[in-house]
Amino acid sequence: MDNSYDAAWQASVDVVSGTLPVQQLQHFLELVQLQAAPEQLQAALQQLPQDKQELTRDEVATLCHTLLVAPGGPPGPLAAHHSSSMMAGTQASHNSSSSCKQQLPGMGSQQPGLQQQSDDAMLAYMQRLEEHRKRCELSGRYAEAAAAAKRMQDLKAAQAERLQGQLAAQQHSEICQLQERYQQETQLFDQQWRERVAAYEAGVAGQLATLRAAHEAQLADFLLQAEVRRPGQPQHSSDYLNSRKVEEVLVKQGQYRKAHELKVAADAMYHEELASTQAAWDSEVALRKTRLQAKQQGELDVLLQRAARGRDELELRRRDEAGKRGNRFRCMVQELDGMQRLEALHLQHFLEGSALPGKYMPLRDSTFKRKRELLGL
Fold first, then answer.
1. What is the pLDDT of residue 102?
2. Whole-angstrom Cα distance, residue 121 to residue 148?
3. Compositional bias (Polar residues) spans (predicted)?
């Protein structure tokens, strides 16, 4: 794209709508050094709708091409120069004209190469305008010098608005990017800790299940051994033993009736002593069972307490890591805020101290480039 044509368009276009007001058309033609007779310009404007107040870049290019090819237009070399530059500019900006209208100045997403070309073209135009003002001032054409100075002020104001808008958009994008990355890291952090806690709880549940199974097996084995060892004979008392001896003597003496009576009494004594012996055994087994269950409950309580301590330690570690992450994010925000403040101050000093047109070099491209890389921006 020809720099002079692009600079003229940037200098004349409305910064909000991205179009050229009809009343600025004559000024635009002067900037691109396209001389047209009033009747030619009027005839070209009559081809537009009557209520047309603003022209797009395509419409301006078509209008200029019409003036170039019209009878009495500029000579061949000049016409060829303007025609080629305007057609190239029209083709290059055809796809981007609609998107530019939807965004405020400085908020767009132009490619770096196109933005660099536009800045260079605008800077070249402002330098030529400053040289023109000086020539007018030296030659005594103060009205033209005043007009050039007024135009220079307007261009500087537009440049300031554009640079400030771009800086604000870039800084806002950086803050959003930093916050979005922190939210993503927070979600990942929470997910990892949920998985870690779930794995810990699964381990605790497995240990509890293993311990309970071992306790049940131990209790079942104890009850089985107690049943096997349950006494089937009583511990005979001296009265029972004496009764049996007397019974034998009576049998030998032939006193069967007395022997039978004594046998019945001895049998009853036997069953009583057997029941007493088994009752004592059952009482001892119940006591030992109670002690075993108390021991098992103690082991279970120890495991539960150890699991609770581990759970508390996990929560403390999670809070500690979350606090460190929060502090790190706040430090990053503070560092980014400090850089952005310095960038805004640097831009303000540039705009206030630039008596002559100059090219602005953002701090983000020089001083703060490495810091932004460390912040992941």
1. 37
2. 18
3. 82-114
Widest distance between CA atoms in the chain: 172
Do 90 and 112 contact (CB within 8 A), yes or no?
no
Contacts with 57 (C-beta within 8 Å, 6 or more apart), sequence order: 9, 13, 20, 89, 90, 93, 97
Which residue spans within 141-286 are E strands per DSSP?
Answer: none
Q: Hey, what amino acid is at 313? A: E
Neighbours of 40 (CB within 10 A): 16
Amino acid 259: pLDDT: 85
β-pair type (20-21, 54-55):
antiparallel
- Rounded to an integer, what distance in angstroms lies between the CA atom of residue 12 and that of residue 21? 8
Q: How many CB atoms sit inside 10 A of residue 289's CB?
A: 14
CB 312 within 8 Å of CB 304? no
CB within 8 Å of 275: residues ≥ 6 apart: 234
Q: Are 121 and 4 in contact (CB under 8 A)?
A: yes
Residues 75 and 34: their CA atoms lie apart, in Å, by 11
| Element containing residue 71 per DSSP (H, E) | none
Distance CA 117, CA 115 (A): 5
pTM: 0.52
